[in-house]
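C-alpha cells in:
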C-alpha cells in the first residue's frame, strides 16, 4: 500500500489540487491530513506515527497541499525508485553539494513545474544530498527509523534535515522524474523564520561557513528578542494604564 500525508493550511487548496490528484492515482487511498499546524515537523511526525501501524506499507508520500501528482504513472515510479533497499527517501527535485537550506545553490537534479516556469530538467534517477519538501517519498525503512526534528519550528528545515539523517544512516536520497506540478511559486516564505532554521541546520550538521557571521546573527537575534519583549511590556503597561480607574 502507498499512503499519503499532507500538512494543510488551506482546505480550498487541498480539495482543489492535492486530494483530486491523489484520488486519480489510487481509487481508495489512505490519506492522513493534519490541518492548521504551526510546525510541519510535528505534523509529519504525527503522520509517521500512524504510518508505522499501517499493514503492508510500501511507501508514505508526504506532499504539500498545492502539489499535483502525475496520476498516470506516479505510484509505479514510487515502487520502482524504492525497489533498491538502500533508498530511504525520494523526491522530485533536490541537489548535491548542499551546505545550507538554500539547496538551489548546489548542483540541482530533478525538476518540478511551477506556476512561473519549470525548475530543473527531467533527467532520470540521481542521488542527491537533499530533496525539496514539496514531495517526499519515504520508504518503509524511513518510516520506521526516521523522525522529523521538531526543533525546527514553523515550515523550514524539515526536509533537508531528514535527508541528512538518512544519509548519515548509510541510506541514499534520490530524485526521479515524478512529474509533479507545484501550484504555488517557491520562495523563502517568512524570511526570518527561514534564516533561523538555516542557522539551526548549519549548526547541527557542521556546515556553518563563518563563525563570526553566526556570532553577529545571534547578537542581532538577541537584540530583536529583547526589543520585542520591551515592546510587549510597553503595550501591556499602556493597556493597564488605560484600564485603570480614575483616582486609583
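Residues out:
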Amino acid at each position: 500500500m502507498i499512503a499519503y500525508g499532507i500538512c494543510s493550511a488551506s482546505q480550498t487548496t487541498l480539495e482543489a489540487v492535492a486530494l483530486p490528484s491523489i484520488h486519480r492515482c489510487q481509487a481508495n487511498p489512505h490519506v492522513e491530513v493534519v490541518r492548521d499546524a504551526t510546525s510541519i515537523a510535528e505534523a509529519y511526525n504525527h503522520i509517521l506515527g500512524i504510518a508505522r501501524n499501517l499493514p503492508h506499507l510500501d511507501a508514505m508520500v508526504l506532499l504539500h497541499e498545492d502539489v499535483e501528482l502525475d496520476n498516470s504513472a506516479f505510484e509505479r515510479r514510487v515502487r520502482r525508485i524504492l525497489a533498491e533497499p538502500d533508498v530511504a527517501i525520494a523526491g522530485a527535485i533536490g541537489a548535491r553539494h548542499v551546505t545550507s537550506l538554500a539547496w538551489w545553490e548546489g548542483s540541482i537534479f530533478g525538476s518540478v513545474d511551477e506556476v512561473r516556469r519549470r525548475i530543473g530538467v527531467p533527467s532520470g534517477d540521481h542521488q542527491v544530498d537533499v530533496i525539496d519538501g514539496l514531495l517526499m517519498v519515504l520508504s518503509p525503512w524511513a518510516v520506521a527509523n526516521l523522525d522529523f526534528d521538531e526543533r525546527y519550528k514553523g515550515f523550514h528545515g524539515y526536509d533537508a534535515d531528514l535527508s541528512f539523517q538518512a544519509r548519515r544512516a548509510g541510506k541514499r536520497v534520490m530524485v526521479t522524474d515524478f512529474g509533479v506540478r507545484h501550484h504555488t511559486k517557491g520562495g523563502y516564505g517568512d524570511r526570518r523564520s527561514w534564516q533561523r532554521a538555516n542557522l539551526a541546520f548549519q549548526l547541527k550538521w557542521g556546515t556553518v561557513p563563518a563563525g563570526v557571521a553566526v556570532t553577529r546573527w545571534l547578537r542581532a537575534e538577541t537584540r530583536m528578542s529583547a526589543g520585542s519583549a520591551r515592546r510587549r511590556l510597553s503595550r501591556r503597561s499602556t493597556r493597564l494604564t488605560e484600564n485603570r480607574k480614575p483616582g486609583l
